[in-house]
Amino acid sequence: MGSREDILSRLRSRARPFPAVAPPDYLAVVPLSDTSPDALRALFVNEARWAGCVVHEPLTNEAAIDRVLSLIGQNTAVLAWDADQLPLPGLAAALDRAGVARITNDAEARLGLTGVDAALAATGSLVLLSGRGRPRLASLLPLVHVALLPLDRILPDLESWLAAQQAAGPDALRRPSNPVIITGPSRTADIAMQLVMGMHGPQELHIILVTDNE
Fold first, then answer.
1. Is the dihedral of CA 84, 204, 71, 124 positive or negative?
2. What whole-number distance in Å separates Cα of residue 94 and Cα of residue 138?
3. pTM of the prediction?
């Protein structure tokens, strides 16, 4: 065992895991009285729109693909996750037919296309885990970020997501290169208290709800 592996092994042996469930006297940062799927969807959509996102709610996968193509417009390439990481059946074939190339590293790309690992209803936030086939630049670099969100990935809050990662085992958060939590488009008001969109990331964030990702 090398010195790096030895240090990591000792750190892991001393690490305290997140609790699998919240303690009984725990108060969530944003308490929710209704966590049914319909209520979570409605709350997420409302909070995401308040954060400045454009939320699309197509009724079918075909309509969702059409919405993606309309957002791409005349662009011939998008900075995207790999096809098998995009939770919208038929999208890769549709992009090929439209002559849109999927690239993984290009500072000139106008649009980034990703999936979503989880959505947090309480804050309208998206959780993305980058790694192989999931370049983080796709959600951070282009002016427009299009995120494909399956409805079954909408969770109540960040605490719920962390508990799910703990329940999935210790490697759930070790495999990805890093998690990114996104709440709305990039913005800043550092200069003269004037709000500027897209200063440090995408100027637009489009979230497309996917009703059936099978």
1. positive
2. 19
3. 0.84
